[in-house]
Backbone:
């Protein structure tokens, strides 16, 4: 018995020492990754070119194709094992001339800052002028009915809920009026819609975004635009004084046939499990009113940086590691679907996917769409991430472009930066390179590389 007790004691000591050595090794690797990102990072200069030299990259646009060529060459410059373009057909919607809007009341005219929603039809060349009816929800349309709505412009003015700490929850609580507002209002005879921008602060930047007409026929579709939050406040206040005021909007957007574009893919082939794939990515397309620095140029360059950082750290991944820059997340998700379809067709086994599409702000953690065993493994790494303040790990949610890869055998996750300022810039003209903080961007890339390293080293449960 004494011998067995002594043997057990020795085994326990060996286990503790071994675990301690492993923790130290991982801690040193993460420190190395962060040093490489913060002292010699590449993400900021990549983003500077995407934003300032190319600009907004709406799918189907010349700028989107320039971004494809630029990122393809930069990935080749890294000396990856392979770099290729994956064809994908994407929508081509063109904004046209700058939109204008104004309302008239008591003999005065007040200009509003608006922008067409992505996919909207144009107004007549002379514009659209009609009375306005303000509502707070899609359900309110049913209560008012066609007698009240027909012939008018519906003004959706439900704001994001400022009391919600999770700003993505606040966004989700009101984005239906942007996406489905025109489709629903048209059913009651509305001639146009104007939607309060999805923004938590008061400013004069209109925020665009995708919208849908559902199964409405072409001749039933009505123009749809977003108005800045200050504009929404001004219009609402004016309606309180004069419910019969008229609003004039003018936009010249147009939809063309689909065109071919590409996902940009680079790969480091795995040393032990080359037929099991890890993906890191963001979406290369953006809206056209700004230059898409936060949404989602930041996610693209951070994902590219993950591969570069692991190379510089002399880490040889066990699994094949891919960076995928998806095309057309904003107005169709064609790139994400095309990638998943190709993976299924080629019988590829994807075991891990990480997306960055929440801005280039300070990283706070990750969300995981996975089972309990893999989530518990993540929780065991908490102490490794805590020194970098990136230790908020939650279950649920990952990313739109990697969503089509979902299966029981894959870990899906999303980088979660501090979100309090994200919707100040989301889909707006001020989503520009000057809004990017270099250090915050680099911290996000380092956090992503660290998570990839740990999952690659310890595997999927």
Residues:
């Amino acid at each position: 018995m004494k011998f067995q007790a002594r043997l057990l004691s020795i085994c326990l000591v060996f286990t503790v020492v071994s675990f301690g050595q492993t923790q130290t090794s991982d801690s040193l690797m993460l420190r190395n990754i962060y040093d490489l990102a913060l002292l010699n990072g590449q993400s900021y200069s990549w983003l500077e070119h995407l934003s300032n030299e190319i600009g907004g990259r709406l799918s189907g646009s010349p700028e989107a194709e320039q971004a494809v060529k630029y990122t393809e060459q930069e990935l080749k410059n890294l000396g990856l094992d392979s770099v290729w373009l994956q064809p994908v057909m994407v929508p081509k919607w063109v904004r046209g001339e700058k939109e204008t809007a104004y309302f008239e009341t008591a003999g005065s005219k007040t200009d509003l800052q608006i922008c067409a929603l992505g996919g909207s039809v144009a107004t007549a060349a002379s514009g659209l002028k009609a009375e306005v009816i303000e509502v707070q929800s899609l359900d309110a349309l049913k209560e008012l009915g066609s007698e009240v709505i027909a012939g008018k412009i519906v003004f959706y003015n439900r704001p994001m809920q400022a009391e919600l700490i999770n700003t993505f929850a606040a966004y989700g609580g009101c984005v239906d009026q942007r996406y489905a507002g025109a489709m629903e209002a048209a059913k009651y005879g509305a001639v146009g819609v104007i939607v309060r921008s999805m923004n938590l602060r008061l400013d004069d930047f209109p925020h665009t975004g995708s919208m849908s007409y559902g199964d409405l026929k072409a001749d039933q579709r009505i123009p749809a635009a977003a108005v800045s939050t200050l504009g929404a406040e001004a219009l609402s206040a004016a309606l309180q004084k004069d419910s019969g005021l008229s609003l004039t909007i003018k936009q010249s957007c147009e939809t063309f046939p689909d065109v071919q574009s590409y996902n940009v893919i680079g790969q480091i082939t795995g040393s032990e499990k080359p037929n099991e794939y890890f993906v890191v990515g963001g979406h290369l397309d953006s809206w056209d009113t700004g230059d898409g620095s936060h949404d989602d140029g930041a996610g693209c360059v951070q994902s590219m940086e993950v591969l570069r950082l692991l190379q510089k750290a002399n880490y040889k991944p066990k699994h094949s590691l891919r960076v995928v820059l998806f095309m057309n997340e904003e107005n169709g998700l064609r790139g994400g679907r095309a990638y998943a379809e190709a993976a299924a067709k080629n019988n590829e086994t994807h075991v891990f996917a990480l997306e960055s599409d929440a801005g280039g702000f300070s990283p706070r953690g990750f969300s995981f769409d996975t089972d309990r065993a893999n989530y518990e493994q993540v929780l065991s790494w908490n102490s490794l991430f805590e020194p970098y303040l990136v230790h908020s790990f939650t279950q649920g949610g990952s990313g739109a472009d990697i969503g089509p890869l979902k299966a029981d055998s894959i870990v899906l996750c999303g980088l979660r930066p501090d979100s309090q300022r994200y919707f100040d810039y989301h889909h707006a003209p001020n989503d520009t390179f000057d809004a990017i903080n270099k250090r915050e961007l680099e911290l996000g890339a380092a956090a992503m590389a660290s998570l990839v390293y740990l999952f690659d080293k310890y595997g999927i449960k």
Q: What stands out?
A: Residues 2-40 form the longest helix (39 residues). The longest strand covers residues 254-268.
